[in-house]
Amino acid sequence: MERKITSVAALMGMIAIILGAFGAHALKKQLSVEQLTAFETGVKYQMYHALFLLFLGLNTLLDEKAKKMVFQLVIFGVIFFSGSIYLLTTKAITGVDFKFIGIVTPIGGALLILAWGILFWNICKAKR
Prior knowledge:
Elements: H1 2-25, H2 33-58, H3 64-89, H4 91-94, H5 104-125
Helix pairs in contact: 1-2, 2-3, 3-5
């Protein structure tokens, strides 16, 4: 499980760097300041959670079941939160109005909060 988590963390971090550079350079002229700021928020949260997964994969205080649960919550949380932000902010480029997926952004945020909460709970109850 640790190898899977840390490899996904590395991939997620790499994609965040690519999207951050894409936003800073290619999207700068295409998006409004508000859209670009929102896009950057998606990138930041993706990177924060790539680092979170790296920590999770290297952590020895959680059992496999807890690690798997937190891992899945983070994956879906990032996809829903950051992914929806990427789609919502790039309407000017794609020509597609993804407004209908706006509801998944807060769901993604809730999944990320839940992942942190489960991590906290499991570290508190660890007997090491």
